[in-house]
Amino acid sequence: MRGITRALALGLTLAFVATACGAGGTTTPSPTAAASQAATKPKHDLATYQYSLQTKGKIRIGTQEDNTPFSVKTPATGKWDGFDVAIGREIAKAIFGEGEDVEKFIEWVPVVSATRIPAITDNKADIVIKTFTINAERKAQIDFSDVYFRTGQRILVKKDNTTIKEAADMAGKTICSQRGSTSEKNISTATNGAARPLLLDSYPACLLALQQGQADAVSTDETILFGLVKQDPNTKIVGKYFSQEPYGIGVKKSAGGDRTGFVDFINRTLITLITTGKWATFYEQYITPVSGDKKRTPDD
Amino acid sequence: MPGGIIFEFPELFLTGLWLTIQISVLGLIGAIVLGTLVALARVSPIVPLRWIGGAYVEFFRNTPLIVQLFFLFLGLGSLGFRFSSDTFESIFRAAATGMALYHGAYVAEVVRGGLLGVDRGQIEAARSLGLSYLQMVQYVQLPQTFRSVIPPLGNIAIALVKNTSLASTIGVAELLYAAEIVESRTFRAEEAFIAATMLFLLLTIPLGILVNALERRLLVVR
Questions:
Q1: Spatial contact of B161 and B24, defined as CB atoms under 8 Å apart
Q2: Superfamily designation of domain B20-172
Q3: Is it true that domain A153-243 has CATH number 3.10.20.30?
Q4: Cα A205 to Cα A137: distance, rounded to the nearest angstrom
């Protein structure tokens, strides 16, 4: 609660400062700070949002505290880690420069699924990187970067299961999923309604049903299944994606030019990450231990 | 038209309604039988029976129904017990059992109150006429008890019908579950839940009328 209040207070302060600067028409940083860091800082066009962030010396990145393997805040050290976190740090480096410890320019804003869009629209975070599926409904409210991660719905079965290999094999089987999600609809579409959906309140309950043999498989977004496999190594993820979940980075829509060039800047940064092989390194570091595969680009 | 969505997804809503009715009826029969036996145990002259009855009432009345349902489905499953080898039959039976066990505790307290409310003089008269304890219970105490406890039993029955919606948490495709599926398919939350509400009222309002009618016919004015 305290964290939220603090983040809110800081967000408001920054918003106020930003408005004040805008009204004054000047964005002059303090001369000493500019002089000492000028050598390592990347140059941004004056009108751009990345320039104003660099001037402020701070970027607020929204992500979740417990979303392994994408973002985790280690309770003991307070340090952030994960795939989304690594991408966030790279964007910060692109704004503030490689030279110093980039962490001092980042303020991590904890969000959960339901607070992702408000964090952006209420200007509490400059960007949100949190397994954030791009869709038309959300695009009406915020802007998205290009896809930096692709996932979709797959199937979790016991390790010794040989009958379920692809989505179509779920026909006639008891498939566990969470109520109120779109997973059930995807299962129904993939099997022409022939699967028997067992819909429970949570995925841990589904995992229990799978372990007990009361469900033949669990099916939802692969990223959630990653977490379940980690809990129970006697399970495995099978099949190709049978739904598409493209993740993007969320940014506030540019109102009156206050976010000019920012989405393009993020997209250029993402392309650089992919072409330099950094994206693949992150994938191998964070995703490969749970998925077992390797990718060089999001589209592999 | 409110509730029109029922006719767009008749299979889901009507299956849901039918399952709700089945669980309610089975749960209510179970609760009344179990509750009556426990109430008799609680007023019996045998002390260990009174303890067992008391423990049952306190346990099932003081834990959430949703926890009991989860235990009956996945908890017993972990211990190797299944109500059925078929998962869907298993969750259905777990739900009906859960309804009977949980509401049985309430029925037991209501019936116990009724048993204690029978005039002491009648019990003594019955015993002095040579009736055994069990005969006295059967011919004197229970008939009077059931007449007097109809209103509170009616309350429990109506609560039970509504509580069947908790069976959705263990995957029973009853009314609330149907509404949630329709919601996640159509994103028309209001319509889906209004439909479920209407179907619940379709069950509970007639049940209330039935209870009132029974009360008028059977209640003894004292």
A1: yes
A2: MetI-like (1.10.3720.10)
A3: no
A4: 30
Higher-pLDDT residue of A148, A32: A148
Cβ pair A225, A156 in contact under 8 A: yes
CB contacts of B169 in chain A (<8 Å) are: 200-201
Q: Can you tell me the distance from the alpha carbon of A59 to that of A106, in angstroms, rounded to the nearest whole number?
A: 5
pLDDT interval class at B150 (50, 70, 90)? very high
Whether chain A has a CB inside 8 Å of the CB on B88: the answer is yes
Q: What is the DSSP secondary structure assignment for residue A117, as one 8-state letter?
A: H
CATH of segment(s) A2-149+247-291:
3.40.190.10
A206 burial type by CB count under 10 A (0-12 exposed, 13-18 middle, 19+ buried): buried
Nearest to A212 among B78, B171, B177 (CB): B78
- Stretch (H or E) spanning A143: strand A143-144
A2-149+247-291 and A153-243: identical CATH topology: yes
A138 touches chain B (CB under 8 A): no
Name, in order, each residue with C-beta under 8 angstroms of A93's C-beta and a sequence gap of 6 or more.
A102
Q: What is the domain partition of chain B in residue ranges?
A: 20-172
How far is the C-alpha of A119 from the C-alpha of A117, rounded, in Å? 5
| Beta-carbon contacts of residue A185 (< 8 Å; ≥ 6 apart) | B184, B185
Kindly determine whether residue A205 and residue B74, on different chains, have CB atoms separated by under 8 Å: yes
CB contact under 8 A, B74 and A181: no
Question: Closest residue of B to A177, CA-based?
Answer: B171
- Confidence at residue A34, expressed as pLDDT on a 0 to 100 scale: 46
pTM higher than 0.90: no
